Amino acid sequence: MIEFDGVSRAFNGKAAVKDLSLQVAKGEFCVLLGTSGSGKSTTLKMINRLVEFDSGDIRFAGESVRQLDARTLRRRMGYAIQSIGLFPHWTVRKNIATVPVLLGWSRAQIDERIAALLALLNLDAQLLNRYPHQLSGGQQQRVGVARALAADPEVLLMDEPFGALDPVTRGVLQQEMLRIHRLSGRTIVLVTHDIDEALTLADRIVLMDNGEIVQQGRPAELLTQPKNDFVRDFFGRSEMGVRLLSLEQVGNAVRRGEWLAGEPIAAALTLRDALSQFIARRTDKLPVVDDRQQPLGVLHFGDLLQLREGLTCAG
Ligand SMILES: Nc1ncnc2c1ncn2[C@@H]1O[C@H](COP(=O)(O)OP(=O)(O)OP(=O)(O)O)[C@@H](O)[C@H]1O
């Protein structure tokens, strides 16, 4: 869907991105991860030509982005950023409708789309006539994502979209992005420097340093088969076990057919969340329910340890 072929970009003679080659498949959730200044944002912005590249080529659906009109290109790609970039003097409705209006959609089409986006992002219809400053940070970010998704773009580009949020809201929005990705199968490229966010969201992580890709692969691959010390250090040796747990859902480790009294946990939680529950409740067994709140089985603390070893070995 998106192909970088030996792409470089320098600012004032200093390379920001060096000879970068990368392929993002259709429907993939690709996360660009790296330290500050490693070139992630520049890489992202070159896709929709907010930043032009000096050499190499970037192809979108087989066509060089340089051959495409920049405005047309941007309308085909949703873009959401940390500072949200909502127009302050426009209502939420008008902000979300920006691209559909530019594309000449009818009022009825726009209203229908807005209703669908409100449902998708858990936003209250009462917010539509408010202005951005009358929303909480989390609501603003949701509106930012709704606006990026409004015209049903082929690709969604996101630059630290949840950066400014508290951990709880951030976690909720991450889960919503996963749901949107599952439902829509849309291609997403997201920039973050947050390792846990990358592990939670990515089909594939592209780890960057100093304008170059150091390693790319599935989250478990980077954790269990780090290519060099940089990758190992980046993911942090000491927290590796816990990070591995964050890749697996409770539902995959539950012993079905067993049941237990007590407050159940959801099968969709990660094993890392379950670990917190084991510790908080000082127990070694937790009842688990499915997404319809029906009993699914029991999660055993000991199974977590075995699974962790399994994941490490499998890598
Ligand atoms: N418009 C610009 N003018 C000059 N230098 C720039 C510009 N944009 C980026 N750079 C430089 O290019 C390098 C890569 O920046 P980039 O923003 O792509 O990194 P990043 O990995 O996204 O970092 P961060 O996580 O801090 O946003 C940095 O050294 C940065 O200072």
Automatic annotation (TrEMBL):
Database matches in InterPro entries: AAA+_ATPase, ABC_transporter-like_ATP-bd, ABC_transporter-like_CS, CBS_dom, CBS_dom_sf, P-loop_NTPase
Keywords: ATP-binding, Nucleotide-binding, Transport
Record-given protein name: ABC transporter ATP-binding protein
UniProt similarity note: Belongs to the ABC transporter superfamily. Drug exporter-2 (TC 3.A.1.117) family.
Biological processes per GO annotation: quaternary ammonium group transport
Keyword Ribonucleoprotein: no
Keyword Nucleotide-binding: yes
Domain ABC transporter: 2-235
Entry coiled-coil feature ranges: none
Alphabetized SMART domains for the sequence: AAA
GO MF annotation, one: ATP hydrolysis activity
